[in-house]
Amino acid sequence: MMRKASPLPSILEHSPVRVVFGDGTLDRLGTLAREEGARHVLLVTDPGLEAAGHPQRAHGSLEEAGLTVTVFDGVKENPTTANVRAGLAVAFESHPDFLVAVGGGSSMDCAKGINLLYTNGGQMADYWGIDKATQPMLPLIAVPATAGTGSEAQSFALISDEDTHQKMACGDRRLPLEGGLRPRIAILDPVVTRTQPPAVAAAAGIDAVAHAVETSATKARTDISRHFSVAAWRHIEPAFETALRDPSDGEARSHMLLGAHLAGAAIEHSMLGAAHACANPLTAKFGIVHGRAVGIMLPHVVRYNASVGDNPYADLGGGEEIAGCIEGFLAAAGFPATLSACGVPVGALPELALEAAKQWTATFNPVPVRESELLEIYRSAF
Fold it and tell me: Which domain-ending residue is among 174, 193, 212?
């Protein structure tokens, strides 16, 4: 029997992001933004959501609260520097004092990128890394429409260079009230996630699984991050297949959305590992959707890490147990389990390993992974 997803876990007391959770909470957006001092809001979203009506609901709630609203709906999947520039042009024309992001991780990341450049100037590459912004940023409210990235809990924007396709992680650790990049408020409305297309829900869910698993094991993990990771896993693991099989199951959707947020909060304290390092080149070079890419790699990374010394996933269970569970999730999602099934040629593996070794997340893996170890992991996933 599935546990109920409310009340909110006490571990969220350790997050600077205020969580407003429950069915219908999107309708509180305007009131919450006004309470935070908003007058003119830039609403960042993607056109795919408009058929479901969520951006329109957000727009209506903001206007009912007496706020001026400008919409930028040019967000694309895996937002690029070009997408950020397009949103920045809208910001310069409209002069907002507040941002709202409605959508998946792409909308939230794009909103953060716009925020960085609107308040600090320059280009996204100037902020690749941590704490390179010098000016305070505008307040942001994030409304995730997928249960996946947990970006609404994070102080990082992931933006791809439009030419090289290199993903740039641009972070700012200041607290939201100090002008940092993290949202001030995350509105977690399970009703909003009900309209996810099945393939999107599956890929987002696998991403949330990967976040919970990898954060539980990194060498940067802390006592707080471990609590976040365990809480995330306890919500996601029993709900994943039910949420995919029956999107009308409100309890399963609630568990997935809250679990994804908790896993996102865990990233703030522990970062990620080799599965994400291996997934990024697969997306950049072969266009494999991130959730599928990280899902293929994750069981092999888990088995590799668990085979070297003590099991770093002990907070969640045995290494083989977790790897098998992930493979079951992939099967339930109808996703391929191997790289060859995705059309990746065996001859590409050495170049992929070279690129994976350059990824920042590889440095946080619980056991050292160099190019040779990463090639071994790719081969096991082939």
Answer: 193
